[in-house]
Amino acid sequence: MSLRYRVLAALLGLCLLFPAQPGHASDKDGEDGYRLWLRYAPLDRSVGQQYDFVGAGIALDGIQSPTTDVAISELQTGLHSMLGLSVAEHPLAHRPAITLRRIGAGQADPVAANCNLAADISGGFSISVSTEGDEPKIQIAAFDDIGLLYGSYALLRHVQQGKPLAAIAHCEMPRIAQRLLNHWDNPDGSVERGYAGRSIFDWWRLPDHVDRRIIDYARANASIGINGAVLNNVNARARMLSAEYIAKAAALADALRPYGIRVYLSARFSAPRDIGGLPNADPLDPHVRQWWKAKADEIYRAIPDFGGFLVKANSEGQPGPQDYGRTHADGANMLAEAIGDRGLIFWRAFVYKAENGEDRVKQAYSEFTPLDGQFADNVIVQVKNGPLDFQPREPFHPLFGAMPKTPLAIELQITKEYLGFSTHLAYLGPLFEEALDADTGIGDIPKPVASIIEGSDGGHRTSAIAGVANIGSDRNWSGSHFDQANWYAFGRLAWNPSLSSSTIADEWIGQTFTRKPSARQAIATLMLESREAVVDYMTPLGLAHLMGTGHHYGPAPWVDNLERADWNPFYFHQADRNGIGIDRGRNGTNALSQYSARAAVRFASREEQNLPFLLWFHRIGWNEQIATGRTLWQELVLRYDRGLSWVEEALTKWNGLKADIDPRRHAEVADFLKIQKREAKWWRDASLAYWMDRNGQVLPAGAEPPATSLEHYKGLSFPDAPGN
Amino acid sequence: MSLRYRVLAALLGLCLLFPAQPGHASDKDGEDGYRLWLRYAPLDRSVGQQYDFVGAGIALDGIQSPTTDVAISELQTGLHSMLGLSVAEHPLAHRPAITLRRIGAGQADPVAANCNLAADISGGFSISVSTEGDEPKIQIAAFDDIGLLYGSYALLRHVQQGKPLAAIAHCEMPRIAQRLLNHWDNPDGSVERGYAGRSIFDWWRLPDHVDRRIIDYARANASIGINGAVLNNVNARARMLSAEYIAKAAALADALRPYGIRVYLSARFSAPRDIGGLPNADPLDPHVRQWWKAKADEIYRAIPDFGGFLVKANSEGQPGPQDYGRTHADGANMLAEAIGDRGLIFWRAFVYKAENGEDRVKQAYSEFTPLDGQFADNVIVQVKNGPLDFQPREPFHPLFGAMPKTPLAIELQITKEYLGFSTHLAYLGPLFEEALDADTGIGDIPKPVASIIEGSDGGHRTSAIAGVANIGSDRNWSGSHFDQANWYAFGRLAWNPSLSSSTIADEWIGQTFTRKPSARQAIATLMLESREAVVDYMTPLGLAHLMGTGHHYGPAPWVDNLERADWNPFYFHQADRNGIGIDRGRNGTNALSQYSARAAVRFASREEQNLPFLLWFHRIGWNEQIATGRTLWQELVLRYDRGLSWVEEALTKWNGLKADIDPRRHAEVADFLKIQKREAKWWRDASLAYWMDRNGQVLPAGAEPPATSLEHYKGLSFPDAPGN
Question: What is the ipTM of this complex?
Answer without folding.
Answer: 0.94
